[in-house]
Design goal:
alpha+beta; 8-stranded mixed beta sheet; Fumarylacetoacetate hydrolase, domain 2; 5 helices; 5-stranded mixed beta sheet; 17 strands
Length: 229
């Protein structure tokens, strides 16, 4: 069981809270808009990744892959990040954060579950209470920036309405036999990459709440390890 000290930010300020994460779920193919989801599916098909048999799909990944580390190591040049909102449950309450479903694309071409396990899932250390943002959920914005060849570029951008709502995802998870209990974290899907999926040296995820005037951010460096054979 992995304990992470998060900052819980609400209207009254922020407090530290240690949350033990023992179950990590990656929700895939979570698009609310069929056309946008189809675009992402085709984007991955161009990389040789087969389309799913049904949607959404819930992949299990080792809980130790999830955390607020500022850097990660990957093998080769075939991995890339994806900005996603994340749901975390603790003490019977659901919190919202932002994370990156960093994935090895070469491995993804033959095994999506294995590819998800290949890379860490860096997350912001600050969380919001879902109850604070639920009334204006559809106004939240998700974006990412990638530093490629020393240039910081906008990599993804859009409203969270591109993905199913938190309650919809949790309902779908339950229908597939999942239990979103205390100690569970779920990454909840992503947006299409602007300019196509590609590796970066630095990746930044942002979840913005324009109604309450705040944002969650996490930046991490990517060190590429050589492939010897």
């Amino acid at each position: 069981m992995k304990a992470i000290t998060f900052n819980i930010e609400d209207r009254d300020g922020s407090i530290e809270r240690a949350i033990s994460i023992d179950t990590l779920v990656i929700a895939g193919w979570t698009g609310r808009d069929p056309e946008a989801m189809e675009k992402h599916i085709r984007e991955l098909e161009e990389l040789g990744i087969k389309r799913p048999a049904f949607t959404p799909v819930f992949y299990r990944v080792a809980a130790d892959r999830f955390g607020p580390a500022p850097a990660m190591q990957v093998t080769g040049e075939e991995s890339s990040g994806e900005a996603e909102f994340v749901l975390v449950k603790d003490g019977g309450e659901v919190f919202v954060g932002v994370a990156s479903d960093h994935t090895d694309r070469q491995v993804e071409a033959y095994g999506i579950t294995v590819s998800k396990q290949m890379c860490d899932k860096p997350c912001a250390r600050t969380l919001w209470r879902l109850s604070d943002v639920a009334p204006h959920w559809d106004e939240l914005l998700l974006r990412s920036y990638a530093t490629i060849d020393d240039e910081r570029v906008l990599y993804q951008e859009g409203k969270v309405t591109a993905m199913r709502s938190p309650q919809d995802l949790l309902d779908q998870f339950a229908q597939r036999g999942g239990e979103f209990v205390d100690g569970t974290a779920m990454l909840c899907g992503t947006l299409a990459a602007i300019g196509g999926i590609r590796p970066a040296q630095r990746f930044e995820t942002v979840l913005e709440d324009p109604v309450l005037g705040r944002a969650l951010r996490h930046v991490y460096e990517i060190e590429t390890l050589p492939v010897a054979g």
